[in-house]
Every structure is written in C-alpha cells, then in structure tokens.
Amino acid sequence: MASGARRDTPRGAAHWQTNRPAPAGNGAVATQRPVYRHITMEEYIRHTIERDPWVPHPLTPEEVFELRLDCARHFDEFRMIEANKAGKSREEYQVHCYRAFIAYQLSYWRTFRLNDLPMEIISNILRFVVWSAPTPPIGIRWRLQLTWVSKSLRHAAISDPTLWNAIWFRDDPPFERSLAFVERSGVSPLDLRINDTDEHKYTDEEVCNLLNALTPHLHHIRMLIILLDNWEPILSVLKWLNDYGKYGSPPLTMERFEIHRTGNPYLWPGLTWRGNRYDPPNHDVTFYPLFGGRLVPTLKSFTMNGVHIDWANTPSLNNLSTLDIRRIPLDWCPSLPRFREILTSSAMLTKLSLDGAGPASSNPTVFTMHPPIELPLLNTLVLANFAAPFTKSVVSHFTAPHVRDLTIMNFKGESYGPFYEFITGRFREIKLLTLYTTTCEVENLPIMIKWLDSMPLLTYARLASLDCDILQAFLFDPDVMQPHPLLPPQMRQAFRVVENLRLKDAMQPSKAILEDKDRQPRLVNPRLTVLEVQNIHPEIFTRFVGARHMCGVPVRKTYMARTMIEKFTQQTLAYARATVGQVMVIDIGTKTQEEDELLSAPNEAPP
C-alpha cells in the first residue's frame, strides 16, 4: 500500500496540516489558521495508521460490506474534490487529494483477498516489493518485514529463494542474519557484497570464518563484491578462491568479481613503506592466480582495486565485458603482452577502466609500435591518475570509435597536451564526458579546444574540481580559435579568458574561414545542455553557465551535489536558477535519467 501511494505521488508533495493560534494583539481574538509543513508520504501514512484503532482480523461479511461502502464514499469524496478544485490553492488541493487517496487505499486493501491468490502471483508481488527498494538497507528491512505480516506471507517469502539471493553483509560477525539469507536462497545464484563498516574493520579471523561458511555455496555465487581495508582478509579471500579453484567441486559459475582494498594505497606486501618492510601476518604467500589458475568461462566482469594477482596464470580474464583495474604499482600490473592478450580476447568489451594501473613494460612511456586492438563495442572508457608521458602510450594500444562515455580524472600538475592531441578525433561519438580534478596550461588551451570540438555529439558533462583554466575552452569559437564574439568583455575578464592564443601552424584558421563574412560563429560543443557538477566554486560555476547562455547555448539542466549547493549565496543561487533551465540537487554517484537515455539511444553518426 505504501509503495503504491508513493508511486502516484511526487516526492515532497505530501503535507501534514497542523492548527495553531495566530498571535493576538491589542485584545484581538486569536483565530485558527491551517499551517502546513512538508513531510514524506510514508510519514503521513504511518501517522494515519497510528491514529487508526483498526486491528487486522478475519472479516465478517458485514465488515466487508461496511469497508466497501467506505471505499465508495472515499471515491465520491475524491471526485467532489476534483470537481470543486477551482478557487483552491494548489497546496490545499493536493492535500485534500492525498488524504482521500490514502483513506481509500486503507479501506480497499483491508478487503483484498490476498490469501486467495495463487502462490505464483503472491511470489511475483513479493518480488516487486523487495526489488523496488530504493537502497540495499531498506531492501533488507522490507524482506524481514514481509515475514512478520502473517503465516501465509512468511511461508510465501521463505519459500521463494530469489527473494534472499542478493545479500549485503552489513550485520556484525558472525553474520547470523546474512547467513540465514544464504540458507534461504537455496541453490539460486547468489549476489554477495562483503565490506567493512564505518564502525568496524573486519579481522582476518572474522573473514576466514565467514568464507568457511560460504564455501558450500561458492559454486553458485554469481556476483562477489569485496571491499576490505586490511591486507590480511584480502589475501584470505584470494587464497579461498585459489584453493577452491584447484580442488573444489562443482565448478565455479561466477559472472562478476570485484575486490577492493580500501586501505593505505602505498602499503604492499614485500615492499618498504616509511622505512619498514611490510609482510602480512600469517600469509607467507601473497601472489595467487585467480581461481587457482582454472578457467571460469562465465566470468564477464572483473574489477581489481589496490590488489595484485598472478596475471600470467589467470586464464579467466578472457572474453570480458568489463575490465576495471585501479591503484596497482606498475611492476605488479599485467605485462604488456598479457594486457594486450586480455583486450584481444575480449571482443565484447563494453567498459574499460584504467585508474593508476595499466600495461607494464620495460619503458611504458615510449609510444608503442604494436598495432592497436579493435574494441568495436567499447561504450565506457575511464582514464585516471596517470603520469603525463604514460597516457598516450596506454591509449595507443586500442581503437574504440563508438565510445559514448569518457572519464578523465586527476590529470594535473604536468603537461597533458600530447595526450589530448593524440585522442583528438579518436572518440567522435562521445555523448557523456567526465572531467574531475583536471587542469590545462595556457600553451595547451588550443589543443584542448580542438579536442572538445572533435566530440560534436557531447550532450552531458560531469564536472568536478575544475577552474577557469579548463572551463574557458568551452567558450571558444573553434573555427577561428578566438573567444565567442557574443561573450562580453566583462565576462571575459571575470572568467580570465585568454584572448590571444599561440597557435601552431596546423591549428591556424584557414584563410577561407577568416575571409568568409557570411560565416556564423560557432561555440564548442553546441549540444552540451546538461551538467552534473560538484566541488566547483559557486562564482566560477555561475560565470560558466552565464557565459554559455550569452553565447547562445544555454544549459538546460544542472544536477548539483548537495555539498556544493550549500555553499551558494542567495544571490548566486538566484542567478544560477535564472540562467539554467533546471537546478536539481543530487546525491553523488546517482545515475540520472539523461545518462540512461544517452547510453541506450541508437547509434548516431557525428556530423
């Protein structure tokens, strides 16, 4: 019932009415006036149920008849509200509608013969409830609450293993609740997530006990995501998979494997950190092939973050759809031949993420002469935390003409001009671009402008920790390499726009363009109308969207992190709202509707 009410009600539209006397003065009689405060629909439903003395029980025919009369009365009330909405404020009209709707729902569902439905229908209803939970913790709570309603619903819930096979280990060791979910899941494919909590970092012993309990179910784990702070439990996980791969039966059927070490990125077994060599206690072996070197042909998605394996003896890294490696010292990254072998064998690769990790070679900064590997289905590419000389070499190993989502992070402190020059024109179908903590030197600004102009389909930009040095590249006319003529002098000065760029001969505007008096000025990325921003100074952001608006390409919608919008003054926020079509607050990491639409849209040839 509650989920149905939320589905038909916009977020934040519910109200709770309280009455309080207006302040009286000079002998005036205090009058009552309604005062509204915003609450969620779930809160209102809970308050309504708490005030209702009705107790669930088997209904007599007379009670069923009375409840159906109540439904008819509430329905008539709703129609009367609709007929008489003229003259009422929008807020008052919505309050009356929601009250009538919820009252109708409470009466209707008391007469609904849920127990008479076939078991397969009840199972489908319960699955819709469980899998529509907005967050994993709420999903856990809803699954437990389903077993508390009645004996019949408890039987239906526990009898359906698919309600319990997605498990996030958030309870304290020995994980009794989560392991109970594992048992209820039967032999259905398991999707498991195990990670430290803010209050407790799991010890090696706690993790080993959990792994022992999971061993009988390891063969039907479909997805395994591990996030742990300390090396010891990480190595125990790798040893567990290694031993089962060598000696266990039945064979593994894992499709997605992620392991993240969230602790000190500079602490590695056998290496010296701050004058001391680090050797994990109780772990003489720290170098394992994944799954004991056995081929697991079902594996399609692989993520390794801050952890190393024996890459050469891990045959399961073939035919991947996702390859994501992060924060691994160069000496412990896959060798260049092995890296190329992984890419070559993964023709269906759709996501490639290289964050401070990539192919290891004797001289990784030298531009390779190996022929590039074709990745025709690659849709998402992430490049982060590379030294400037290394970036060009990494990208030279593959071609991916149909990438739509490109992320560049932490490219700062060095000259990345040769990298941007190299990728200009290589990814012409980009529709989503992420730039985080990235800088641009004045001498590289012409290269940056040409690179942005080589992505004519760019519609959505995620921007974080950027300054005017790189944002000004979005304000140029790329044909003449000059700031857009509609950009007024005061805005150019406020945004510190470079007026006279030093251009190489290859970037000089052609004589025909300079002499064409009918040519209309262009702005870089004319389709760019949606932004997602965080950690940008409010003044810089408002100047940026204001400048794009002055140049004739206004930003239609901006998603802004809550921590950023809290830094806005009333004046800057008012300017942003007046300049941008919509300003919406979003939680960091939330996927937006526009992202899904752009990534799933049919292929479009760039102009």
TrEMBL record:
Residues 1-29 are annotated as: Disordered. Residues 1-10 have a biased composition (Basic and acidic residues). This is F-box domain-containing protein.
